[in-house]
Specification:
By secondary structure, the chain is an all-alpha fold. It folds into 2 domains: 49 residues, Homeodomain-like (Arc Repressor Mutant, subunit A, Orthogonal Bundle); 144 residues, Orthogonal Bundle (Tetracycline Repressor, domain 2). The radius of gyration is 19 Å and the shape is elongated.
Length: 246
């Protein structure tokens, strides 16, 4: 039998099969909460509270808790679809003829997406949230990156010793530049991403030492949760990130 048609983001948040469908007003409140959470987490990151989401949605916090028992449930419902955008980037990269071109595509595009959505960056690079549904999508991303790395090494373009576990750390480093420049120099993150990309090329150079293994990466990512920094200003409409060329 053919696969069922994919659902829209709004359809993904309907009541699960077997549960009583939400009343129209309850469904409207649920979508208001999801839309508000998208805006709040994109700006302030996952340190934002359900009270912040409720205020943005214009509903009482009790209404939020009726729809989502805790913040992790809200984060999973919202970002399962958002992390799907990163999977799309990886699939686009795998379709490119060269593994190196694909790997650079992932680094550029994921950095671009995360620079505009602090909450997405935190959930994509942290294991503190999304331990079930979102974690499965993270595994799909990692598997695709492993393929790109193997192809880039076979092409002789990627330096030896790079693994898929290096990629989250690279994205974390570049993301810290984007976050801590507070939107004042959107080009700086691209500048340092360009330096990283150049450093990944195969050439005689410094011994990098061993990459982190799976257990080490898991421990690192457990500590990459929300930080106590103030929310960064939202970039002006029309502001664009410049992408380094290779």
């Amino acid at each position: 039998m053919p696969d069922p048609p994919s659902r829209t983001v709004h359809e993904q948040h309907r009541s699960p099969v077997g549960e009583r469908p939400l009343r129209r007003d309850a469904q409207r409140n649920r979508q208001l909460i999801l839309d508000a959470a998208q805006a709040v987490f994109a700006d302030a990151g996952l340190q934002a509270s359900l009270d912040d989401v409720a205020r943005r949605a214009g509903v009482g916090v009790a209404t939020v808790y009726r729809r989502f028992p805790d913040k992790e449930a809200l984060v999973e419902a919202l970002f399962e679809a958002r992390i799907g955008t990163i999977i799309d980037v990886v699939e686009q990269a795998l379709a490119l003829p060269g593994g190196w071109d694909g790997l650079v595509h992932v680094l550029r595009e994921v950095s671009r997406v995360q620079a505009g959505d602090r909450g997405l960056r935190e959930i994509a690079l942290s294991t503190g949230y999304g331990r079930s549904r979102v974690a499965a999508q993270r595994s799909r991303v990692a598997a695709g990156i492993e393929q790109l790395i193997a192809r880039a090494e076979a092409e002789g373009v990627l330096r030896a010793g790079i693994t898929a576990n290096d990629v989250p750390l690279v994205l974390y480093m570049v993301g810290e530049v984007a976050q801590n420049t507070n939107g004042l120099r959107l080009d700086l993150a691209d500048r340092y991403l360009g330096l990283v990309i150049d450093g990944l090329r195969a050439r005689p150079g410094t011994d990098l030492g061993p990459p982190p293994d799976d257990a080490e990466l898991e421990r690192f990512m457990q500590g990459w949760g929300p930080s106590p920094r103030s929310p960064r200003p939202v970039p002006r409409p029309g502001a664009e990130l410049r992408v380094p060329q290779t």
